[in-house]
Write a structure and sequence with these properties.
The chain has about 220 residues and is of the alpha+beta class. About 45% of the residues lie in helices and about 10% in strands. α3 packs across α9 and α5 crosses α6 (about 125-130). The chain is globular, with a radius of gyration of 18 Å. It starts with a helix and ends in a 7-residue tail after the last helix.
């Protein structure tokens, strides 16, 4: 669960208070970071029971929590399942009062990874649809994949069965998390359930993108 004081800080920080305000509230910033770091560690430990790769890929939980966004009112957590630089998909959680979510997939993957992912979807459409239109996925992510389209995604057969997926910018699924849930003792359990619901999507994306050679 997240402490109320952390949510209060994130709410105030999101208003772009400026450097002076942050300096005056440095102790609150550090407290919020500790609280979010504790949540990150709990998520890794709990999710690792379902997917052992998580423990191997996140040996240092501090690397899962983005530092800078906290000062801007956002707690951003990314839990990897592979150490490969090309593994575009992760499990993730965003903590931001009134706009929090959890889930998995690849949000705004680099262009070269997005291209190979679209090519994989074109070649293995049945498997893709089986995931994003499956009952478990739809139960946890009723709105489907996160929106956003790439106008430069062209070159596919116009009547292709997966045409509606070829111009996506985001290949992630997000489940909304209320402020009440953030402060609930069931937060970790419910978040890990959203991770589990997104596992097939995460694995599909990473199998596609890790076919590429490691970046130098």
């Amino acid at each position: 669960m997240i402490d109320q004081s952390t949510l209060n800080f994130l709410s105030e920080a999101s208003c772009d208070q400026g450097a002076e305000w942050l300096s005056d509230n440095e102790s609150r910033l550090k407290s919020a970071r500790r609280d979010l770091m504790e949540l990150t560690s709990q998520l890794i430990a709990r999710a690792g029971l379902l997917d052992p790769r998580i423990m191997e890929a996140n040996l240092d939980p501090r690397k899962c929590l983005a530092r800078a966004p906290i000062a801007k009112g956002i707690g951003s957590i990314a839990v990897r399942v592979s150490r490969s630089k090309n593994a575009a998909a992760t499990y993730f959680m965003r903590i931001s009062p009134g706009c929090s979510y959890s889930g998995g997939g690849a949000l705004l993957p680099p262009p070269r990874l997005a291209r190979i992912l679209r090519q994989t979807i074109a070649s293995h459409t049945g498997k893709w649809r089986g995931i994003v239109e499956g009952p478990l996925f739809r139960t946890y992510f009723p709105n489907g994949l996160t929106g956003g389209h790439d106008a430069d995604a062209k070159g596919y057969v116009k009547n292709h069965d997966a045409l509606d997926f070829f111009n996506l910018k985001n290949f992630g699924a997000c489940r909304s998390v209320s402020d009440e849930r953030l402060m609930s003792t069931s937060l970790v359990e419910e978040t890990v359930k959203s991770f589990a619901a997104a596992r097939a999507l995460v694995d599909y994306i990473n199998r596609a993108t890790t076919r590429l050679p490691e970046a130098g």
